[in-house]
């Protein structure tokens, strides 16, 4: 879980995504909300990457990233998915203008929803 | 509020006197504290004439106000002169103010690509005639002076209308139907005890009609310019008469945009004190009159039917027979009794109300009451007493006397021609419909009022003959009325298993249509399993049945699901392995990494993971969607590639560059759906990397466009779309209302209709496979962009370049993606995102 403070996240967002600001995650913007207990539990899960590779390729070792690559930075403290919205937001009802998730990795924005 | 106070508040519908001129609508509704003015009669009706009171005078008297007259809501049903009428003048002269305006969008109404666009002819007379042809035909009886005024008014209508909306915006809220969110209006009315339900038309219908209007207007301008150039002595009135008349120089009026403008009429139901009131402008419910909207109109009629019963119905299109019929009457009464009807028309109307409409009303005279302004002038229906009261200014209620002596012409349904060389012989009528709507060949004829004999010979050649050597016809024996279905356009397909629930599919698209689909599949040697039980909600249970079929039928290369999630359930899947989920608790993912997936239906070994590609043809409650998707032919549209990307997604540039073709990918911003020149997504391969939203799948957005206008909507789709569409748009392939991660126990997750989804719109236009996400998508922002969605996009197009089956290409792309996971980014969130990318991508459409 990220140990970045809200202020740090906000600073990163304003630096890497000019025109956007950090927003507090809301029920509207995320499915991971306090109503989670009322959510329908998923019918199925997903096996880990080793099992997927074993199933489809019969081997877990032949790929460049290797089977254990997933564990390298597994506890990265600077890793976070946060919600941002445009500072030029036009209308709260406008569907295209909803808050969006962005990915912070190693202190910078590396990916975005959409 | 005390009941006695409430009782004193007005509760009435007033059909205003719309004067002498033909056609025209103007209604004033009083729902307690809410006043609604619907349409404004004719341009000249701001002044009274020949004993007819002006529109503003009538409003003032009824509202007991002095100018400016204030209404809560001003509605303009559609962009015709006899509905916009004198409203621009009233607003411009401060005689009328409105808190809200719910209006026809001028851009759509005039078929403009943008709000500012407009074809203005150099010759004002050309402009006048072209504008006049948009409107209802003025009959031969209209004198030259009145006709000249009508044409002049028509030519300035668009600019006056836009100016009116700009003025209202200064102090009120303008909602353009199909463009602006009506929530604020609905909430404001609700706070005053009035419900507003906007029933239609759909955005699809608005767009189709706008395209039709644009085409007809362009053609008219060209024809009219030619006519003026070839005869310098012509004037606008003379040419107009020639065009709409019956002489040898008459231009065929079937291309006029009038019906398309009518079909943009906003259809609303108001509710007040447990009563409902239906208003539909000039909506041609009975005979739409333009191609491509039959299914949409059927859906609209269903909505209108289900919304009923109504305490009052304003018959649309001035009581035309293309708006009303016995069938429509029955639909309005299906949910209960709709007993009061009103018709708006000017006193000198000739063929409106239509005799056929009046005959229907007359046949039900013992059950209903009606008033008509062409005979009764201002007519009021009062609902503030337990029994409704009708007050008319002139004549008698329930007057069924036509304004013309033409006989009532029945709409005849004729058996389809089953063999070549045996054409039906029919007598010319005003409107002849051959076969049922949308099911076979439809022929609409307008025969001029002339003393002549017209003989028509129609030969219909069957298309795509269906081999029928082993399969028996459906028991109903009626499926032969439906169009033949050539699966995959006759292409050779690998061995596929089509899976559905016959009964559930029938519930959604109609029993005959479902029979027809299954019969076509079986007759073309497709493997079909149609016994998924109705109401089965668990994908695991359904998948067990499918797996058994796969076991019995070795060699199947793919599974095609027929129908929405309510026919064959999709599976709610947690994308994350348990260990990873524990590391991303409290994540900001919009779906909490839970998505819908159909992968389980490709499982042959019982581990719930797919060994076969799976595709799904969603039904959208629309038979023609299923028909079109099944027949997708993979033929070229003439351009190898097209695409649009969000300006903030540069990685898409590299993905697109690898596709065959020369076209550049379009970029939004600055591109918006209504940009100039208007663009169409014409390409065999379509690539979209834009924002999407689960609540509105009918459009995709770019980044920070002006007023947040979308980059793509249905207006950007050509009639025939390319074979494959790949999207990186959030929820772009979601065909239900609720993403999997947001479904609440015990609550339905809804279903998107065919009108509500760009994905389904592509399928209806011939796309073989629409590849997209059922959840939110993630893009790489850091060069070289080789993580998150990037590698999946690359892998899909790479696989598709080798073989042309989208479902198989997606399956292969996923395997490729698994090989590379994690793609450089190894933090828990990054890995979670890649698992989500893997699980959520799905193939809609035939896929093969």
Please provide a written account of the structure.
The complex is a heterodimer of chains A (114) and B (848). With 114 residues, chain A is an alpha+beta fold. Chain A has one domain (6-27, 46-112). Helix content of chain A is 18%, strand content 20%. Chain A has 2 helices and 4 strands. In chain A, a hairpin with a 2-residue loop joins strand 3 (100-105) and strand 4. In chain A, 32% of the residues are buried. Mean pLDDT of chain A is 75; it is low at 26-32 and 66-73. Chain B is α/β, with parallel strands linked by helices. Chain B has 4 domains: 10-117 and 164-216 and 252-392, Metallo-beta-lactamase, Chain A (4-Layer Sandwich); 409-462, no CATH class; 485-577 and 595-627, Gingipain r, domain 1 (Rossmann fold, 3-Layer(aba) Sandwich), CATH 3.40.50.10390; 634-844, Rossmann fold. Helix content of chain B is 30%, strand content 17%. Chain B is built from 25 helices and 32 strands. In chain B, helix 16 (502-509) crosses helix 17 (511-523). Chain B is globular.
List keywords for this structure.
heterodimer, A: 114 residues, alpha+beta, four-stranded antiparallel sheet, 2 helices, B: 848 residues, alpha/beta, Metallo-beta-lactamase, Chain A, Rossmann fold, 4 domains, ten-stranded mixed sheet, eight-stranded mixed sheet, 25 helices, 32 strands, 30% helix, 17% strand, globular
Structure summary:
The complex is a heterodimer of chains A (114) and B (848). With 114 residues, chain A is α+β, with helices and mostly antiparallel strands. Chain A is built from two helices and four strands, in the order αβαβββ.
What's the layout of helices and strands?
The complex is a heterodimer of chains A (114) and B (848).
Chain A: H1 6-16, E1 20-23, H2 49-57, E2 80-86, E3 100-105, E4 108-113
Antiparallel strand pairs in A: 1-2, 2-3, 3-4
Chain B: H1 3-8, E1 11-15, E2 27-31, E3 34-38, H2 55-63, E4 69-76, H3 81-84, H4 87-92, E5 96-103, H5 106-109, H6 124-134, H7 144-171, E6 173-176, H8 183-190, E7 194-200, H9 203-230, H10 236-244, H11 258-262, E8 267-272, E9 275-279, H12 294-307, E10 312-314, H13 326-332, E11 340-343, H14 355-363, E12 369-372, H15 373-376, E13 379-382, E14 389-392, E15 413-414, E16 433-434, E17 496-499, H16 502-509, H17 511-523, E18 527-529, H18 539-552, E19 558-562, E20 571-574, H19 578-583, E21 594-597, E22 614-617, H20 623-630, E23 641-646, H21 651-657, E24 666-668, E25 685-689, E26 691-693, E27 696-701, E28 712-713, E29 724-727, H22 758-764, E30 769-773, E31 778-780, H23 789-802, H24 806-820, H25 828-840, E32 841-844
Parallel strand pairs in B: 3-4, 4-5, 5-6, 9-10, 10-11, 11-12, 15-16, 17-18, 17-19, 19-22, 22-32, 23-24, 23-25, 25-29, 29-30
Antiparallel strand pairs in B: 1-2, 1-13, 2-3, 7-8, 8-9, 13-14, 20-21, 26-27, 27-28, 30-32
Helix pairs in contact in B: 6-7, 6-9, 6-10, 16-17, 20-22, 23-24
């Amino acid at each position: 879980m990220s140990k970045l403070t809200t202020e740090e996240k906000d600073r990163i967002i304003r630096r890497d995504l000019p025109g956007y600001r950090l927003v507090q995650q809301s029920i509207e913007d995320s499915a991971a909300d306090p109503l989670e207990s009322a959510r329908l539990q998923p019918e199925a899960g997903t096996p880990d990457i080793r099992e997927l590779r074993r199933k489809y390729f019969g081997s877990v070792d032949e790929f460049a990233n290797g089977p254990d690559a997933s564990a390298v930075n597994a506890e990265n403290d600077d890793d976070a998915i946060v919600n941002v919205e445009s500072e030029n937001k036009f209308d709260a009802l406008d569907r295209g203008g909803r808050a969006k998730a962005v990915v912070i990795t190693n202190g910078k924005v590396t990916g975005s929803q959409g | 509020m005390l009941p006695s106070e409430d009782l004193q508040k007005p509760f009435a519908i007033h059909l205003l006197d719309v004067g002498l001129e033909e056609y025209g609508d103007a209604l004033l509704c009083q729902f307690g504290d809410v006043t609604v003015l619907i349409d404004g009669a004719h341009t000249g009706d701001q002044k009274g004439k020949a004993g007819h009171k002006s529109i503003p005078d009538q409003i003032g008297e009824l509202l007991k106000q002095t100018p400016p007259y204030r209404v809560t809501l001003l509605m303009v049903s559609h962009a015709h002169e006899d509905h916009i009428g004198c409203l621009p003048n009233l607003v411009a002269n401060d005689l009328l103010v409105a808190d809200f305006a719910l209006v026809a969008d001028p851009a759509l109404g005039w078929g403009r690509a943008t709000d500012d666009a407009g074809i203005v002819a150099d010759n004002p007379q050309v402009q006048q005639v072209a504008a006049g042809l948009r409107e209802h035909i003025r009959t031969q009886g209209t004198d030259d002076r009145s006709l000249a005024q009508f044409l002049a008014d028509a030519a300035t209508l668009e600019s006056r209308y836009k100016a009116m909306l700009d003025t209202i915006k200064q102090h009120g809220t303008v909602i353009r139907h199909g463009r602006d969110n009506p929530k604020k209006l609905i909430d404001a009315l609700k706070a005053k005890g009035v419900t507003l339900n906007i029933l239609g038309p759909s955005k699809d219908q608005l767009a189709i009609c706008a395209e039709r209007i644009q085409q007809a207007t362009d053609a008219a301008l060209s024809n009219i310019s030619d006519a003026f150039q070839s005869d310098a002595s012509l004037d606008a009135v003379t040419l107009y008469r020639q065009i709409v008349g019956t002489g040898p120089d008459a231009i065929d009026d079937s291309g006029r945009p009038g019906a398309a403008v009518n079909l943009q009429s906003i259809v609303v139901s108001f509710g007040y004190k447990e009563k409902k009131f239906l208003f539909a402008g000039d909506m041609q419910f009975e005979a739409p009159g333009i191609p491509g909207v039959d299914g949409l109109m059927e859906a609209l009629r269903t909505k209108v039917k289900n919304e009923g019963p109504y305490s009052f119905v304003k018959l649309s299109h001035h009581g035309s027979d293309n708006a009303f019929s016995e069938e429509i009457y029955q639909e309005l009464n299906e949910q209960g009794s709709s007993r009061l009807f009103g018709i708006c028309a000017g006193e000198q109307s000739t063929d409106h109300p239509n005799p056929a409409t009046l005959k229907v009303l007359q046949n039900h005279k013992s059950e209903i009451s009606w008033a008509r302004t062409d005979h009764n002038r201002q007519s009021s229906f009062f609902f503030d007493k337990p029994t409704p009261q009708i007050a008319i200014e002139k004549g008698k209620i329930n007057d069924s006397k036509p304004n013309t002596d033409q006989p009532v012409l029945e709409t005849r349904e004729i058996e389809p021609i089953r063999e070549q060389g045996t054409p039906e012989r029919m007598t010319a009528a005003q409107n002849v419909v051959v076969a049922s709507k949308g099911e076979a060949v439809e022929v609409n004829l307008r025969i001029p009022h002339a003393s002549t004999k017209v003989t028509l010979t129609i030969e219909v050649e069957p298309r795509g003959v269906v081999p029928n050597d082993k399969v028996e016809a459906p028991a109903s024996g009626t499926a032969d009325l439906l169009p033949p279905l050539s699966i995959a356009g006759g292409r050779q397909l690998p061995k596929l298993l089509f899976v559905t629930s016959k009964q559930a599919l029938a519930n959604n698209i109609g029993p005959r249509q479902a029979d027809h689909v299954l019969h076509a599949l079986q007759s073309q040697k497709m493997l079909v399993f149609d016994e998924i039980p109705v109401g089965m909600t668990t994908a695991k249970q359904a998948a067990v049945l499918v797996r058994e079929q796969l076991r019995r039928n070795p060699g199947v290369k793919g599974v095609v699901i027929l129908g929405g999630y309510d026919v064959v359930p999709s599976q709610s899947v947690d994308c994350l392995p348990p260990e990873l989920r524990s590391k991303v608790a409290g994540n900001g993912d919009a779906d909490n990494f839970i998505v819908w997936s159909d992968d389980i239906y490709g499982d042959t070994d019982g581990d719930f993971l797919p060994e076969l590609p799976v595709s799904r043809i969603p039904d959208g409650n629309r038979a023609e969607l299923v028909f079109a998707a099944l027949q997708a032919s993979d033929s070229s549209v003439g351009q190898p590639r097209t695409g649009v990307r969000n300006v903030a997604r540069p990685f898409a540039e590299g993905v697109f560059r690898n596709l065959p073709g020369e076209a550049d990918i379009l970029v939004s911003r600055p591109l918006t759906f209504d940009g100039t020149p208007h663009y169409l997504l014409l390409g065999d391969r379509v690539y979209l990397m834009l924002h999407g939203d689960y609540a509105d799948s009918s459009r995709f957005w770019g980044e920070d466009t002006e007023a947040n206008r979308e980059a793509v909507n249905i207006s950007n789709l050509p009639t025939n779309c390319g074979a494959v569409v790949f999207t990186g748009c959030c929820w772009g392939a979601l065909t239900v209302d609720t993403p999997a991660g947001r479904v609440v126990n015990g609550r339905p997750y809804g279903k998107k209709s065919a009108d509500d989804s760009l994905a389904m719109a592509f399928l209806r236009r011939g796309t073989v496979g629409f590849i997209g996400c059922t959840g939110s998508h993630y893009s790489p922002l850091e060069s070289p962009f080789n993580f998150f969605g990037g590698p999946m996009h690359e892998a899909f197009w790479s696989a598709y370049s080798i073989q042309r089956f989208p479902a198989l290409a997606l399956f292969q792309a996923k395997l490729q993606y698994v090989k590379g996971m994690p793609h450089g980014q190894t933090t828990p969130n990054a890995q979670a995102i890649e698992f989500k990318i893997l699980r959520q991508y799905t193939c809609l459409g035939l896929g093969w």
